[in-house]
Write a structure and sequence with these properties.
Length: 430
């Protein structure tokens, strides 16, 4: 396992480029299952989860071609033959987005067998919303041996309301609905840009979709979809992470190749915290800070609220802000696992249920810390950028799941960060 070694104290100055959105690319890759014709996706990030998705599609019989040179960030997927419509556990166990192939597989082939990562049970998990929707559309679904099995001669349009907002549930059922007989109406849908990205691809493929990006989506099913070429949106979470990196280090950073219209909640909170943020164009934003930040509370919400995927990064910023910041996590349980590592570095944080109280500014000092998940990894890197001394961050494979060459990007704007081989003996999983 690789390790990051970070020497703190350098303000980030210069221009840093945002990659394509992993959370858009994954469902768009799954959408290739819906047609026999090739789908070419551009602006695909080179991250671990994308490699896993490619292997998953290939294991089902898809032909996957990766670009090279100037087209290195493109992937062409041809699902002319799906000889084995199974998402095998040994492939998807490291990726939580495996359920995204459930809807398109059953819509295209009439059957699907999908392993749930970690042997997750259906009951009490977000996957139950996928199941309810597919059953309303006529699928018969069972679970055994850690797999969900779904069958349907032909899905039919249905009207259903999500019990809670779910991004992957909205995406999965949207892909199922485009080939179903009749009209499907989905209410209480996720409005995230990633949902709109997927819907835009599906429309390019010939689907009839209205309302993507709103709470109600209407789909008129078609009998067949065609191939397409589509460019994936920039990663709003990577862009937000870089904006916080510029602010927390007292830097002057230009974040390019982003979509500034997707960054409203993060930009508003940075302004409240005392950073200077200028939107220079539809794809460029500049952040400046003198290092003197003010406490500001956040509460994670579904889009367009403050994203849960930015909560950990903002908490790192809050450790450097004057005063008390309250960080409330409303989307996911167990998403404060980075707190104990930040405390090891000297942060003053207390957790009570869904709320973390952050006392700042804290004098962070280097320590050996360990990543627990993708966004927690980013928070530790951000904290290390301002900590005194040399911080060693273990298990950075978590970060490689969703950030493309983040160490190289940060180094290009002045960060002292190195990637090394594993410095620690194996440890039990958290």
């Amino acid at each position: 396992m690789d390790t990051f070694v970070v020497q703190g104290g350098n303000p980030l100055v210069g221009t840093i480029r945002v990659s394509g959105a992993k959370n858009s690319a994954l469902p768009c890759m799954a959408a290739a299952i819906l047609t026999e014709e090739p789908i070419t996706l551009e602006n695909i990030p080179q991250v671990r989860d994308i490699s896993t998705e490619r292997r998953l599609l290939q294991s089902m019989g898809a032909e996957v071609e990766i670009g090279s040179g100037e087209t290195a960030h493109s992937t062409t997927i041809s699902c002319r033959t799906l000889s084995d419509p199974v998402a095998k556990y040994e492939i998807v166990k490291t990726m939580r987005a495996s359920s995204l192939v459930l809807g398109p597989l059953i819509a295209r082939t009439g059957m699907a067998r999908v392993a749930m990562p970690g042997g997750c049970a259906i009951g009490g998990r977000p996957i139950d919303l996928h199941i309810k929707g597919l059953e309303k559309m006529g699928a018969t679904i069972t679970q055994e041996h850690g797999y969900i099995e779904a069958r349907a001669d032909r899905l039919r349009g249905a009207h259903f309301v999500f019990d809670k907002i779910t991004v992957t549930g909205t995406e999965d059922l949207l892909m199922a609905a485009v080939l179903a007989d009749g009209e499907t109406v989905m209410e209480n849908c996720a409005r995230e840009p990633e949902v709109v990205d997927l819907a835009s691809l599906l429309v390019t493929m010939g689907a009839n979709i209205e309302g993507a990006g709103t709470a109600t989506i209407r789909v008129s099913g078609v009998s067949k979809l065609r191939g397409a070429r589509y460019r994936i949106n920039p990663d709003r979470i990577e862009a937000g992470t870089f904006l916080i990196a510029g602010a927390i280090t007292g830097g002057d950073l230009i974040v390019s190749h982003c979509n500034t219209s997707h960054l409203g909640a993060v930009i508003a909170k940075l302004l409240e915290a005392g950073a200077r943020v200028e939107v220079l164009g539809p794809d460029t934003v500049r952040v400046r800070s003198n290092g003197r930040l003010a406490a500001a509370d956040i509460s994670t919400e579904e889009y367009p609220g403050f994203p849960t995927d930015m909560q950990a990064q903002y908490m790192a910023l809050a450790t450097q802000a004057e005063g008390t910041s309250l960080v409330r996590e409303n989307i996911f349980e167990n998403r404060f696992m980075h707190v104990q590592e930040l405390v090891r570095m000297g942060a003053g944080i207390k957790v009570d249920g869904k709320t973390a109280t952050v006392l700042g500014p804290a004098r962070l000092s280097a320590a050996a810390v360990m990543c627990s998940d993708l966004r927690a990894s980013a928070s530790l890197v951000l904290a290390a950028l301002v900590a005194e001394g040399e911080t060693i961050i273990d298990r950075v494979y978590h970060m490689d799941r969703g950030y493309e060459q983040i160490d190289e990007k940060l180094r290009s704007v002045g960060a002292k960060i190195q990637r090394l081989g594993n410095l620690f003996p194996p440890r039990p999983s958290a």
